[in-house]
Design brief:
Layout: H1 2-24, H2 46-52, H3 58-64, E1 74-79, H4 92-100, E2 103-106, E3 109-112, E4 118-120, H5 127-130, H6 137-140, E5 145-148, E6 151-152, E7 159-161, E8 164-166, H7 174-177, H8 194-198, H9 218-228, E9 231-232, E10 235-236, H10 251-264, E11 275-276, H11 279-288, H12 290-293, E12 297-299, H13 320-325, E13 330-332, E14 339-341, E15 347-349, H14 351-358, E16 362-368, H15 394-406, E17 410-413, H16 416-426
Parallel strand pairs: 1-2, 1-17, 2-9, 3-10, 11-12, 12-13, 13-16, 16-17
Antiparallel strand pairs: 3-4, 5-8, 6-7, 14-15
Helix pairs in contact: 4-9, 10-11
Length: about 425
C-alpha cells in the first residue's frame, strides 16, 4: 500500500512538472522537434481495451487506476521493428509511431545491399513481403527468384504448389533500395496473380497507415533515433547469402561496419544494445568493441535445435553460466521460453528463466502484440502457456508475470503503447 501511494505521488509530481514545462515553453512544439518531448507520449486506446477485457483481479484494478497517466518514455518498452502491428515495419513512420507511444528503445534490424550498404530490414530476403519491389518491373527482375503464381488443380480447386518469390537486399544497390516503399509484411501463398499475392495483410492488422512507408538506411535510423531521443538496439541479421559476400565481405567486416556507423554518428555506447542470434558476433564485439559489446544481447533461438529442451538445463550448450563466463550479460529468448504453468494453472517463470537469473544474466524478451486475437491460445509466442490464454486481456497478465516474476528488463512489442502503459503504471 505504501509503495502504491509512493508511485502515485511520484506520478503526480511528474505531472505537475510536465504541466509547468508546457506552460513555460512558448509556442507549439512537435514531437520530432524535441528530443525529450515526454509530455506528448500517447499510448492510444489499445491498453484500455486490453485492461477492460481482463478478468477481475487486483492487477486489473491497479491498471485501471492509472488510466489518466501521466505517460512517459520508458526503456522497458522496446519498439519491435517500430510499431509494426499497424505500420509497415522498419519504416520512418513505424519508428515514429513507436516513439510516440513511449518506446525508449527502437530496433533497426541490420542487413546489407548489393553494394554493401547497411539498411533496416528484418531479413535480408524479405523485400517481396515487406516492400513494393514486385510491383516495380525493373527491380522485380533483379530478385533472386521471380514471382511465381500458385498452381491450382483444375479438378479440385486446391493449391498444388504455393505462390512464391524471393527478393533480397543483396539483389539490389542502395540507390535501388531507396526507390522502394514499405508495406505490411504479408504474402498470399494461394495467389494466382501478383496483386493478390501482395494484397494480403492479415485481417487483425491494417493498411490504414501503409503509406508512404519510408524505408531507411541504418545510418538514417541512427539519426532519426537521436532526434527522437531514444536508445538503439540494432540486430545484426544472419545473412541469407553465403559469407564472405562478393568474395571479401566477411561476417566480421559486417559486424564491425554496424558498430562503426554508431561511432561515426557520435552515439554513446551506453545507448546502444547490439543484438545477434550468432554468439560469435557478440564475442567479436566484446573483443574488438568492448564498450558496445558489454551491452550485447544474445538472441536465443536454440529452440530450433532438435537436442535443445528449454525445460532441461542439461541440453543447453553453452549453459547460462558458460554464457556469463564468455562475457554475455543479456539474453533474449522468445516469451514462451520464460513461462510455464504450475499445478494450479497459474502462469509462472520457467526453469529457463530461473537459471538465467541465477547465472547473473539480465533478460529481454520478444514479442508482445504479435499474435492477433488471443481467444484460441495466442499461437507460437504463447505456446508454453496456451492452456492459460483465452482472451485479449491475458496480454496484461502475461506482461505482469514477465515483469514482476521473471524480472525482464525490457520487452519487445509490435505496439509499444501496451508495454508503456504497464511500465508507467508500475513505475518501471
Amino acid at each position: 500500500m505504501v509503495l502504491k501511494k509512493f508511485i502515485r505521488l511520484n506520478k503526480f509530481i511528474r505531472l505537475i512538472s510536465i504541466s509547468f514545462i508546457m506552460a513555460f515553453c512558448m509556442g507549439n512544439t512537435t514531437f520530432a522537434d524535441n528530443d525529450n518531448d515526454e509530455q506528448n507520449i500517447q499510448v492510444g486506446p489499445r491498453p484500455y481495451y486490453l485492461i477492460e477485457d481482463m478478468k477481475p483481479s487486483e492487477l486489473k484494478t491497479e491498471l485501471q487506476e492509472c488510466a489518466e497517466g501521466p505517460f512517459y518514455k520508458t526503456d522497458f518498452s522496446i519498439g519491435h521493428r517500430g510499431a509494426c502491428m499497424q505500420f509497415p515495419e522498419h519504416t520512418k513512420e513505424s519508428y515514429m509511431a513507436a516513439a510516440r507511444m513511449g518506446a525508449g528503445i527502437l530496433e533497426c534490424d541490420v542487413t546489407f545491399t548489393k553494394d554493401k550498404q547497411l539498411v533496416c530490414r528484418h531479413s535480408q530476403c524479405d523485400l517481396h513481403t515487406t516492400t513494393n519491389i514486385l510491383a516495380i518491373p525493373e527491380l522485380a527482375a533483379k530478385c533472386s527468384e521471380p514471382f511465381t503464381p500458385a498452381q491450382i488443380d483444375p479438378k479440385t480447386g486446391k493449391v498444388i504448389k504455393p505462390a512464391s518469390a524471393k527478393c533480397c537486399t543483396s539483389d539490389i544497390t542502395l540507390e535501388e533500395f531507396k526507390k522502394l516503399t514499405g508495406k505490411m509484411d504479408a504474402e498470399n501463398p494461394d495467389a494466382t496473380t501478383l496483386e493478390a499475392y501482395m494484397d494480403s495483410t492479415p485481417k487483425w492488422r491494417t493498411d490504414l497507415y501503409s503509406t508512404p512507408g519510408t524505408l531507411m538506411t541504418h545510418a538514417e535510423s541512427i539519426e532519426l533515433f537521436k532526434k527522437l531521443g531514444v536508445k538503439m538496439t540494432p540486430e545484426l541479421k544472419t545473412p541469407s547469402v553465403t559469407m564472405p559476400f562478393d568474395g571479401n565481405y566477411t561476417q566480421e567486416a559486417f559486424a564491425q561496419q554496424m558498430i562503426d556507423e554508431y561511432k561515426s554518428a557520435g552515439v554513446n555506447p551506453k545507448d546502444v544494445f547490439p543484438q545477434s542470434f550468432k554468439l560469435d558476433d557478440l564475442l567479436y564485439w566484446l573483443k574488438h568493441e568492448p564498450q558496445f559489446g558489454r551491452q550485447g544481447v544474445f538472441l536465443d533461438d536454440r529452440y530450433d535445435l532438435k537436442e535443445f529442451d528449454y525445460k532441461n538445463p542439461a541440453t543447453w550448450s553453452p549453459s547460462m553460466e558458460e554464457l556469463f563466463a564468455k562475457g554475455v550479460r543479456i539474453i533474449a529468448p522468445p516469451m514462451w521460453m520464460l513461462l510455464s504453468i504450475d499445478k494450479d494453472g497459474k502462469v509462472v517463470p520457467s526453469e529457463y528463466a530461473k537459471k538465467a537469473k541465477a547465472a547473473g544474466l539480465d533478460i529481454i524478451t520478444w514479442t508482445l502484440e504479435r499474435s492477433g486475437l488471443l481467444k484460441e491460445g495466442g499461437g507460437w509466442y504463447y505456446e508454453s502457456i496456451k492452456d492459460a490464454i483465452d482472451n485479449d486481456g491475458d496480454v496484461m497478465e502475461v506482461l505482469n508475470v514477465l515483469a514482476k516474476d521473471v524480472g525482464v528488463i525490457g520487452i519487445f512489442s509490435d505496439w509499444a503503447g501496451t508495454v508503456t502503459y504497464y511500465a508507467n503504471c508500475k513505475g518501471l
